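Can you give me the bound-state structure? Components:
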Amino acid sequence: MYSTLKRLLLGRPLASHEEEHQRLTKLVALAVFASDAISSTAYATEEILLVLVPVAGMAALADLVPIAIVVTILLAIVVTSYRQTILAYPHGGGAYVVSRENLGTNPSLVAGSALLVDYVLTVAVSVSAGVFAITSAFPELGPQRVPLCLGFIGLMMLANLRGTKESGRLFAGPTYLYITMLSALILIGLVRSYLGDLGPLAVDEESLAELTERGRLVTGVTAFALLRAFSSGAVALSGVEAISNGVPAFKKPESRNAAATLVTMGLILGSLFFGISVLAHRLRPTVSEHETVLSVLGGAVFGHGSGAYYVLQLATFAILVLAANTAYADFPRLSSFVARDGFLPRQLANRGDRLVYSNGVIVLSLLAGALIVAFDGLTAALIPLYAVGVFTGFTLSQSGMVVHHWREREPRWQRGLVINGTGAVATGVVLLVVVVSKFTIGAWIPAVVIPCVALVLRRIRHHYDGVARALRIDPGYRPAPSHHTVVVLVGGVHRSLMPALAYASSLHADQLVALHVSTDPEHEDRLRRDWAEHGLDLPLTIRPSPYRELTRPVLEFLDEVESEHPGGLVTVVVPEFVVAHWYSNLLHNQSALALRARLHQRPGTVVVSVPLHLGAARE
Amino acid sequence: MYSTLKRLLLGRPLASHEEEHQRLTKLVALAVFASDAISSTAYATEEILLVLVPVAGMAALADLVPIAIVVTILLAIVVTSYRQTILAYPHGGGAYVVSRENLGTNPSLVAGSALLVDYVLTVAVSVSAGVFAITSAFPELGPQRVPLCLGFIGLMMLANLRGTKESGRLFAGPTYLYITMLSALILIGLVRSYLGDLGPLAVDEESLAELTERGRLVTGVTAFALLRAFSSGAVALSGVEAISNGVPAFKKPESRNAAATLVTMGLILGSLFFGISVLAHRLRPTVSEHETVLSVLGGAVFGHGSGAYYVLQLATFAILVLAANTAYADFPRLSSFVARDGFLPRQLANRGDRLVYSNGVIVLSLLAGALIVAFDGLTAALIPLYAVGVFTGFTLSQSGMVVHHWREREPRWQRGLVINGTGAVATGVVLLVVVVSKFTIGAWIPAVVIPCVALVLRRIRHHYDGVARALRIDPGYRPAPSHHTVVVLVGGVHRSLMPALAYASSLHADQLVALHVSTDPEHEDRLRRDWAEHGLDLPLTIRPSPYRELTRPVLEFLDEVESEHPGGLVTVVVPEFVVAHWYSNLLHNQSALALRARLHQRPGTVVVSVPLHLGAARE
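Here's the bound-state model for the whole set.
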């Protein structure tokens, strides 16, 4: 039944050779890799305002454009920097790989942890922001925020367990639609604003009062607030690194095409983010928890209730879901790399029967779902956690590139060194700003979690190394033969006992005994009579069990055997009958099961269940 | 850790010989066996009013005394009838035993089911009524009704898993306190009333309106309402049968003492029930869902807030908890009888390490808790379910006694026949009245559940009989020897493989093969090289697993072996390593576990795990 349901939901199993590889044109690759980065324009501007407005009121809009300029400059630095990575690592250079090869194990584990945490947050942030786009258009859905988020995560989990071919077409539609709608919004909005056709919007006093009231309690210093606002805007850069992982998916020449796509993506991302910020500066929307800034702007420019407005909201939702979906490709892939290096449980390196890393998909869904529940599905609450992982990855990746240039001394290495050095310093400073400015409102969580995850990864590898050492043997190694005692557990003289006795006799035993654990004197007497009557010549040892349990007396008996023959091997033969239906097992004592589990833990002990199948009788 | 917690909560294990038997004086026995029956006076009168008031308003009080008279006459008949049972079954004659011995298997199963259902309801009804006594005195606790009920059930479960010595002292206190307080209430109340010191109480119009408004929708015909009210009052008889089960616990002469105690109990129960009904008739309390009638009467007679009032409420609560606790003695004991007869899962016949039938205690708690939740902790909602089981038991038990007298023809058997015949007819008629009059408001539930439980009991016995037949063998039976193939599963050439290979060679095999399931061509090549390098001469069969799974290729291989040697025996030897900590298992693929479980289901297959303990190295 379980397997029928599984087939229905996930489809037929796929054989290993059915895996396909697809090469992407630049146009399609842009859609596939850029959705994550570009989608952040849906919330980055708003997040800046959400920090500033509570401390400065509507006056905060004055600081929006300067902050947007700084973020855009940072974006330019990071894009230039990652261009170097793409050219240097044509087979894919994520932060984990680059820091492993250039900085060593520990930095690579920190980078890996940062990325894993980052992917979980990508899912949580993107899904919550996508649902926010929906609830902005349909406010009556607002209270259903958390169930909606969990529902979409569940759907993405299912889709990714089935395995999505990263079909270019699937991605291209929403990504280009979003770019088009956002460009239209910015252009039409700015033109109408400069022509005087559209003035600043009316202030929503109620929402403003809500925000400012709470805000004054939390912050106060303006310089600090500016840094904090900048940290929020910096999340616009999340996802920029995606192309560096995916170079091999491009058509030839891979590196050149990938680098060109990266630059194009940077330009689009920068223009959209800057454009939205300028538009917001002019139209002065009031940020609130009930409607996104993009929805307010879209309503003002296109008209609330117009077709274009709904298309904008839908496109926003769609690109955010795609962004979350890229994490569904990245998290399982990265964790399979890390697992293959021995730093994560091996199960994460196994592909399920649909050729996807099913365990990674499930783990990602559970973690992202937990975050959604813990932070009540609020994007603004998740943002402070997000930037830390992103910039940790950037910093380590760029630092790795610095070492790479220094070591390789490839042509024009000095130029690369300067570029990546600038990138490393810039992203490192931003990381510091993010951690410090947002430490108390959530950044402490990744600042604690990322090092802890890195430590756990080390411990896991340590464990695997220990096991591998213990299992390694030299050619010619053979275990020394040891004294072998075979113990047959006897419940009663039944049909199931006979094959077990026959099996036990067939073992090369130095000593063969039958053991009965007695809880009932009446039953014990009958067993003795039956034993004699059936002509069983094996010596029958009977042990009382005053506490009416099976496991302890058996263990005590085995300890006695052990003390007589230290280091010897003991085989415990358990006669069992297997009933035809699983539910029938509920009618039989499962003490044999507990015994087997316990004996499995005992060194030098082999457990043999000799099952007799009732209803499928065999001799 | 689990076992430490268990010891802390339940105490040290008790050996079988530590069981104690206690003989009870009549005075103590009355407290032990009568708490269940007498406690029903706490709600029986109220339940009559709760049926009548909604259809007739305060005029209903006119019918209270006539109904109480009929119930009291019924009580006299049942007590007289059970006196015969006690004298005829000095070793204990519950409805299950009496109907098994006189009426045959099927009636005894119905009686057994009725009693089991009855005990569950005893817990649910008594606990909810006890909590109602508390919330009547402390109305602010009212909304916490369900959690309070569940909490008390949890405490009783724990206490009974520890095992309560049915200490006479424990029972005597609350039972005699309740009898004293209730007698005082009735006497003082009636005296004050007849002296004119205490008139009829003011009608609580609000509560009355609440009840009458709903009531008129449900009932209407007065004759039907009277029958229904009588059915509610008849629950006062529940628990009367308890002494007939417990005859062996009395001091000698057991039967005589038990019979005398039964009559005393009947007199006390009858007087208290009738007294409360008369007092209610005179004082005209308004029934409501917020306060028990007993609390209203107590408040009127003793004064609300007086010490005597609180003692009355506390004593009511205490005796009801004791009544629930008697079901904790009866349910596990009866289910162990039934299980020993093969009609219930054997686990219910096993005593836990505190010498109690732990599984019965747990099952009872879960079922009673579920009822409390389903019926929102309302006594009045549970009552219609209650009487069906009680009177089914009575009817079958008395009918059994009729057959007993007819068969035995003991001295004065005709007199016994008349007495029990009257009892059987009376209780049978009441059963019919209860089922018909309350069918739509809940009585259909036990009317469906009791026969279904009886059917399940039959099926269980049928299964056990089938298994026993299948396992039975004649002396001299030996299974025919069959072709034996030993298959060693190989993952890689590790230290853990060697003891498994050695073990496999030690089996008397007709054929010995090593099997590797390959999911990774690279790993497969290394295995072939290692196999040769380590000089392993066993033939190595390699099977590809295109879907990257272990179980299916192994099963396919075994099917091929089977087709070559039909009816042969196959042993699958699985080399395993056991890590020191359970959590380390999370880091290793558990596919061997799934394989073992699957192979266990395959006829003619023996699975041998040869574990290598890492960290506790042995050769």
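A couple of observations. Chain B has a mean pLDDT of 85. The radius of gyration of chain B is 33 Å.
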